[in-house]
Structure formats: C-alpha cells, structure tokens
Specification:
Elements lengths: L12 E2 L2 E7 L2 H9 L15 H7 L4 E6 L2 E8 L14 E8 L9 H14 L7 E7 L3 H8 L4 E8 L2 E9 L7
Parallel strand pairs: 5-6
Antiparallel strand pairs: 1-2, 2-3, 3-4, 4-5, 6-8, 7-8
Helix pairs in contact: 1-2, 3-4
C-alpha cells in the first residue's frame, strides 16, 4: 500500500523548505515515540510501548519531512481511528501529528494538505472520503483540519474525551 520512492515528491511550502511524505523508518518511529508535548497536549504523546506498535504498523504510518528533517507523521486506517469509532466503507480514516516544537506555528494545515496530496498520488484511497477526528477542545487542530477542506460532520465520545468528526472528499473541486 505504501510505495516508497515510487512517485515524485509532492512539495508544499513550509517555512523555507518543502514538505515530503515518505515511508516510516525505524529511526523515525523511535524519534516519534520519544516526542513529548506540553502537559495540556500530553494526550498526543506516544508511550514507550508504542514504539513496537509504530514499527509493526509502518505500512500504516508515513514520515513527514522538511529539508530531510522529521517534522511529523501521518497515519491511515485503523491506526487513525479512536476507540469505538467504527470503520466505514465510505471513509478512509486519517490522522496526523506534528513534532512538539513545531506545534502552534500554523504549519499543521500545510503538513496535512501535503500528506493528503501524497497519499492520493500513491493511490492510497480505498473509499470516496477522508475522515479525521479531533478532540473538541483542540481549537488549533480543528482549524488546521479545516484548511485542507475538512468540515464538521458530528461528534464521537471516546475514553480520551469528545471528538469532532470531520470529513472531506479525497478530491476537492477546483477552487475549494
């Protein structure tokens, strides 16, 4: 499902560099598993035990880099789904994370857009639409998901809290 180096890079401006989406390496997984967010965002931290899950799920995770430096990740499928959210033939579930020192700089929308463009170019779409869930109190991430065209479609309660369910077609109409 995740071909590495098969297609040309899909760049998007981020700071002075570009965003590239590539296969998750063992080093990337190890780095991501050690990222620590400020206390109010700690729910997004991977636990030490998650390193094995990241490595075993490398076909579901992609690294997001800028100028060759790891800046985030994107995941597709079961790894992007929160507990209790049922899979659907209508949606491909997607999730993303940004390196903690980059959070709050307005980069998430660009990073998410670039990841979606790359996944689409690779043929990762198995459903007509994408679905993303964001904790309802995380206004920055809600705004970031709206920039590449996600719109609010409902809510879902999970052990971590109330999530806003957002959807968008894989392909947006011109000018959207």
């Amino acid at each position: 499902m995740w071909a590495v180096g098969k297609l040309p890079r899909v760049p998007s401006a981020i700071g002075d560099g570009t965003v590239d989406v590539r296969g998750l390496t063992a080093a990337d997984a190890k780095s991501i598993a050690t990222w620590r967010h400020p206390p109010e965002l700690a729910t997004y931290d991977f636990l030490a035990d998650d390193l094995d899950a990241l490595a075993l799920s490398s076909d579901l995770f992609r690294s997001i880099t800028s100028d060759g430096e790891l800046v985030g990740y994107v995941c597709l499928g079961a790894q992007a789904r929160v507990p209790g959210l049922e899979p659907s033939e209508r949606y491909d579930d997607i999730g993303w994370g940004l390196r903690p020192d980059l959070v709050g700089r307005g980069l998430s929308g660009t990073v998410l857009s670039a990841a979606i463009d790359r996944l689409k170019a690779e043929g990762s779409a198995t459903a007509p639409e994408l679905r993303i869930v964001v904790l309802d109190w995380n206004l920055r991430s809600l705004s970031a998901a709206e920039r590449p065209g996600f719109s609010r479609a409902g809510t879902h309660r999970a052990p971590e809290g109330l999530f806003v369910v957002m959807t968008r077609p894989w392909s947006l109409p011109s000018g959207a």
